[in-house]
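Data availability (excerpt). The following record was deposited with the supplementary files.
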Amino acid sequence: MSQLLNCPTCGSLFIQNSFISVCNECYKEEIAHYEKIGEFIRNRDNRLLTLEEITEATGVPIPLFYKFVRKGWLQLSYLPNVYYQCEVCHQETREGRICNSCRYDFRKDLEIYEREQILKKGIKF
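Predicted structure:
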């Protein structure tokens, strides 16, 4: 569903849809940054660089690089020395939006919550 919103990057009005979360001008800029990274990592030697080295060489902001990874535009399997931050604890991770430790904690908390709900209803294990 489309919504009229202010662009989170520049503040101008735009119509957000399920594919685009910024205005048209900022989207074009994002695509240009994405193409810059793509061109840069075509060179196999550049694939061995760290996130900081890649973003410094290309001029792409680190948060935008994270956005490309989370959207699936960039595959970390081609970049063995690149990690991004867990959305919960900000530790480095290479897969998913949260690290294994936070994922484990969420599962554990969910199990505890489910047990409490079952006990509240009077159902025993």
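Summary of structural features: The mean pLDDT is 90.
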